[in-house]
Amino acid sequence: MRPTPPRPLIALLERLLEPRVRDALIGDLIERFEQDCDHGRARDHRHAGVARAHLRLYWESLVALRHFGAPLALLRSRSQESRMSSFLADLRHGVLVLLRAPSFAALCILTLALAIGPTTAILSVVDPLLIRSLPYENPDRLAFIWERDQNGSPTPMGFATIADIRARATQLQSVAAMGTWETTLSSRTEPEKIIGSRVSWNYFQTLGVRMALGRDFVRDEDQVGKSSVVILSRGLWARRFNSDPTIVGRTIDLDGAPYTVAGVLPASYDDVLQPGAQIFRVLGYNVSLPYACRTCRHLRAIARIRPGVPREHALAELNQISSQIVSAYPKEYSGAGMFLTPMQQEVTRAVRPALLAILAAVALVLLIAVANVVNLQIARAVRRDGEFAVRIALGAGAGRLAQQLIAEGLVIAAAGGLLGVVFGKLTLPLLVARLPRTMPRVEAIHLDGLVLAVLAAVVLVLAIVLGLIPAHGARRRVLFSGALRGAARVGSGDHHRTRAMLVVAEVALALLLLASAGLLAKSLIRLLAVDTGFDPENLATMTIQSSGASYKTDALVLDYRRRAMAAARAVPGVLSVATSTSIPLSGAIDRYGITAEDRPLANPELAPYATGYRVDGDFIKTMGIRLVRGRVFDAADMRDSAAGVAIVSASLAKRIWGSGEDPVGKRIHIPNARMQWSTVVGVAGDVRHAALDAEDTRAIYVPEEDWGWASSDAVLVARVRGDLGATLEHIRAAVASLDPTQPITNIRSMDAVVSSSTTQRQLALTLFAAFAILAVLLSAAGIYGVLAGSVAERTREIGVRSALGATPRDLLRMVLRRGLRLAGMGVVLGLAGAFAVTRYLHALLFGIAPTDAAVFASAAALLLGVALVACLVPARRAVRVDPMVALRE
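The structure assignment produced for this chain is given below.
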């Protein structure tokens, strides 16, 4: 291999020599260096000759700089204004150059836009959730406090425990409690079910939120009998009260009872703890209440750590307090220990894996698009070698050439970025509509300055990449291959290797995305094939309510519910009807510790927990849940509050009594208002309660009449035949006619409930699939571009081969071999990358390994098939080359 002059030295000479003699001197120095190397190889040992040539090159370079070097003052005298003027001229020239090649410019701009568009939308979603701080005062000092359950997992707290922490903790500035709350804003014409929260009086003080109108809660209001005070969100105040500034101090009707409005939250308030909450009521607990006990773990505790106190110190104090509490109340706790989780980490815990995976996927698409455009730029730069040779001959150095190509790259990157931002702006609402409704900070998702700044930085980096890589190759080809001496068409082949490497990288990244999408698709198929334990087909659901002055007693509530079931049962096509306080996979889960009379426990807190359903009507039959043994509830069970009966799931029965004992006839204790023993009358099949991938299937079914108090909310389920949509609307109308003041919400089929439980996985799959398809198309375009350029550059060679007897099959095989070799190398690298990277998708997978061989093989086969199709067009073009025409060129 022939030695070449040191590139740093040549770059220094280009910078310091006077423009009028620069290229001539550099050309002479390079020529003298090559001659010295040749003479050295002929007379001396090779290494000695090359070393002597280097010494002579450095000495002659110093002499040239002494006589023809531009003074440093002259170099610095070039003002910023002149440099800016030069760059603006380059930008104008870049625009003109691209206008002369509209197809090339449009292809590059569209390729970048197709990648920057989804990048814009995904960054707009990720920004408020994972990057931007929570919209509270000093959010880094906010944290959740959790108890440690018998499995060592975090669990909510009882009010008495929170009261103890508030009284004893010195490392915490304040501790607040919050729980869920749903209420009905009463109206004769438009009753509305509103999501809210019940909070302790210092809740907003702990978060550092100040009212926009009115005042915050005060300590005296947080007492039993004095808790009928509410604070409105800005949205509810504007929507239902027309932004009335006199709302503070007025009384509104909630669930038929009067509540006083204390204040209105600012527009900037974003509830990340209870997404969608629009109204807040003071908690009004004390430790004497039965539902404020230590074992009633339905509240979340929020703490603000004191300034300067490390979180580890605060946690150590909480663990010490926990040990003291457990020692005083050993039967109320399964063990000592607490968790102190940063609020930012906790509120994004459920969505973080999916968002990070989607962000990585869109980054891969952007890399593939950039590689594709760089490939196009290199191909075009090769065709412009003559132009670059003339520029260099006229005095343009490496820096000047790079500046010109960077300016052209900036035009392409800026145009692609602007078009991509438009695409992202248009697709962002579609993406937000697909997000789970329980996701925090959805309202804060928009295209803001931070996202635009990141995109501007991306565009700037793209411009440099799109300019420097072609400029480096062009300068090398022109300077070192003799273009200045009339051999501009002689190439080193470096651009072929660079373009081939880019195609291999594109294919590898595309395979990584394709394999990831395949894993998610197979996982979702397996998840949806999971036996839910019930039959969702032709099952209608809706939430009904009975609250207000007309439903002050449990008897009135249950009477309305039964009239609603009767009205629904009378609708043509309805086979059976029932109600329950919740339904599987709806997100509403009540869990209770169940103890058996014949299996006493020293510590009741070690009792197995089960999801509770308080039902009316034949819920088991209507839901399509299998009855394993025993019987279902009959009419007498539903109307006799002293019956004390229950149905347990098979997994709960096995957990308490083992697999060899019949639980029917056994007595169990459920922590409800009756505080009496209930007799097991049946065993039902296991049902997926929390999620399709949740293994906990333990459940307990109890008649609502037998619970001790009736819930004002219930889910009505109806098994129907025929048109489910029409029947669902008829059921809603029949129930609404009983009392128009009561809202009916969540009207949907059970199939929709099941589908909504997999929203996050479906969103991840949809985006990965879209990105994978785009990546495969870009990779195919890259392979086609490289092969098409190669065929165009080797037209004479192909003509010679054909004239010497090469058959069309030989030429076809030659082109296909090159294309498939590149694709094969990319597939191998992609498979290696997939084996290393897809394990990070484990949180989104179900019933499938992150390195599933069948998925990887299918992805590789699909990509190779697409690559083969991309190779066929240039291969056929090579076959059709006329030898005589090629030889005359």
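Interim note for the steering committee: The first helix runs from residue 7 to 16. The chain has 27 helices and 23 strands.
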